[in-house]
Write a structure and sequence with these properties.
The chain is globular. The protein has 15 helices and 12 strands. 48% of the residues are buried. α13 links the parallel β11 and β12. α1 runs parallel beside α14. The chain has 3 domains: 102 residues, 3-Layer(aba) Sandwich (Rossmann fold); 86 residues, NadA-like (Rossmann fold); 79 residues, Rossmann fold, CATH 3.40.50. The strands form 3 sheets. The chain has a 4-stranded parallel β-sheet, with helices on both faces. The chain has a 4-stranded parallel β-sheet with strand order 6-5-7-8, sandwiched between helices. By secondary structure, the chain is an alpha/beta fold. Helix content is 43%, strand content 16%. It binds iron/sulfur cluster. The site of iron/sulfur cluster has 13 residues, from α5. Iron/sulfur cluster binds next to α5.
Length: 303
């Protein structure tokens, strides 16, 4: 029996479902029940009424969101150390510090935050719906964290004052992309179009034909009539893009754009997690209750 056969056997036996983020290794994506972005997957988990266990192959904050939204299910993270450094950049103390200066300004937090931080915000957003979320608020100024590039993108799209908290929160992987690398690729592929994730710098966003989240990129790539697409986000997305669009060519804008945290998950670890039912992700109910409210408020926008 192969490892994949074993995983499938355990999945059936334990009524488990495997959710894998778009940045996971190809073999994990191929063995998952669903592949997508963090919130898309959490919503998917909510629809899996029969499932007792969710193996969330991704990083800490995503598994936390799944646990918050699925309190009746056991949520497992295959690798305990798979933590998103950007999520760690915004602490509760930091939010409280900003609230002292802006007591009446709403706090909008990207889902790439820990549950403890989410519990102190008014509403959550994803990179797909951040503009819509901020536009929905009856406020001309918002506190927005933790990614300052996404904050700048939202400011440019909404015209509102978007104060980044902390001032320079960032994703180390998306910072690796540089417009100069795109220019070199464009000379090799003159008809290519460029897709950029909003966690990239503003300079990168400026060279894009399209700025969007991973799920939006997948949709755009399917619908856009282009032979070659240059992609500026974590390299794991390339597997899905190529699989879904066999007739198109995809070129990563920087070949070492790898999130080491996402790649901590392996097929072996996924198998062990399922077999031994570890590592269980839990969020204390008082925190979960407040964070759930912020997530549900976002879902109410029907994005
Ligand atoms: S790609 Fe960036 S934001 Fe996503 S998990 Fe890795 S470090 Fe965090």
């Amino acid at each position: 029996m192969t490892l994949i056969d074993e995983i499938n056997r355990l999945k059936k036996e334990k009524s488990a479902v495997i959710l894998a983020h778009n940045y996971q290794r190809p073999e994990i994506q191929d063995s998952a029940d669903y592949v997508g972005d963090s919130i898309g997957l959490s919503r998917r988990a909510m629809e899996e009424k029969e499932a007792k266990i969710i193996v969330f192959s991704a990083v800490d904050f995503m598994a936390e969101s799944a646990a918050i939204l699925n309190p009746d299910k056991k949520v497992l993270l295959p690798t305990l150390g798979a933590r998103c450094p950007m999520a760690q950049m915004l602490t509760v103390d930091e939010i409280k510090r900003w609230k002292v200066h802006y007591p009446l300004v709403p706090v909008v937090l990207y889902v790439n935050t820990l549950a403890s931080a989410k519990a102190y915000c008014d509403i959550c957003c994803t990179s797909a719906n951040a503009v819509e979320v901020v536009n929905s608020l009856d406020a001309e100024t918002v506190l927005f964290g933790p990614d300052h590039n996404l904050a700048e993108y939202v400011h440019r799209k909404t015209g509102k004052t978007v104060i980044p908290i902390p001032e320079r929160g960032f994703c180390p992987t998306h910072l690796l992309f540089q417009p100069e690398d795109v220019q070199v690729l464009e000379t090799k592929h003159p008809d290519a179009i460029v897709m950029v994730h909003p966690e990239c710098t503003v300079e990168m966003q400026n060279v894009a034909d399209y700025v969007g989240s991973t799920s939006q990129m997948c949709r755009y790539a399917r619908e856009r009539n282009a032979e070659t697409i240059i992609v500026a986000t974590e390299e794991g997305i390339m597997h899905r893009l190529r699989k879904e669009n066999p007739g198109k060519q995809f070129v990563l804008a920087y070949e070492d754009a790898v999130c080491p945290n996402m790649k901590l998950n392996t097929l072996e670890r996924l198998y062990t997690a399922l077999k031994e039912e570890k590592h269980v992700v839990t969020v204390p109910e008082p925190v979960a209750k407040r964070a759930r409210k912020a997530l549900e408020k976002m879902f109410e926008l029907k994005n």
